[in-house]
């Protein structure tokens, strides 16, 4: 399967289309994604934002520090997140893609926060924290070790 890649929310009010291949596909085990999704682990498909068309008046967003998460204001489906430190990148929830089976994750991020009963027996690399390096600017609680 090749681009365009499409997706949307559960009720169909929000739709998006990416005109190129993703640059990043990962699982995230962090607590912030867990809260936002309600699921024990999240997965994301990252595209260049200028290669994405996102439609839907019902799209709402919630900002927490540099991270902004969007969701459908009608059905509540989580859609994507952006990070101010990652210019021109947008990360869609893998489950929002129309063909989710096509987007096989290549890495687990934030495994330090992985739930102890969650076992995912694959050979993918595990990152203790983020799998995408951000420029400097770390919150005090996230001092590099
Ligand atoms: Zn919706
Ligand atoms: Zn996360």
Automatic annotation (TrEMBL):
Keywords: Lyase, Metal-binding, Zinc
Keyword Isomerase: no
Coiled coil feature spans: none
Superkingdom assignment: Bacteria
Domain CENP-V/GFA, residue spans: 5-137
Family: Belongs to the Gfa family.
PANTHER family (UniProt xref): CENP-V_GFA DOMAIN-CONTAINING PROTEIN-RELATED, GFA DOMAIN-CONTAINING PROTEIN
Protein name: GFA family protein
């Amino acid at each position: 399967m090749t681009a365009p890649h499409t997706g949307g929310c559960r009720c169909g009010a929000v739709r998006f289309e990416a005109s190129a291949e993703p640059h990043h596909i990962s699982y995230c085990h962090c607590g912030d994604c867990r809260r936002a999704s309600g699921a024990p682990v999240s997965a994301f498909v990252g595209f260049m934002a200028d290669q994405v068309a996102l439609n839907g008046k019902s799209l709402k967003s919630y900002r927490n520090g540099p991270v902004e998460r969007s969701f459908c204001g009608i059905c509540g489906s989580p859609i994507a997140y952006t990070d101010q430190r990652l210019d021109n990148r947008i990360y869609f929830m893998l489950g929002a893609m129309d063909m989710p089976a096509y987007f096989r994750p290549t890495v687990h991020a934030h495994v330090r926060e992985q739930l102890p009963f969650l076992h995912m027996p694959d050979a993918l690399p595990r990152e203790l924290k983020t799998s995408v390096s951000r420029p400097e600017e770390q919150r005090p609680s996230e001092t590099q070790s």
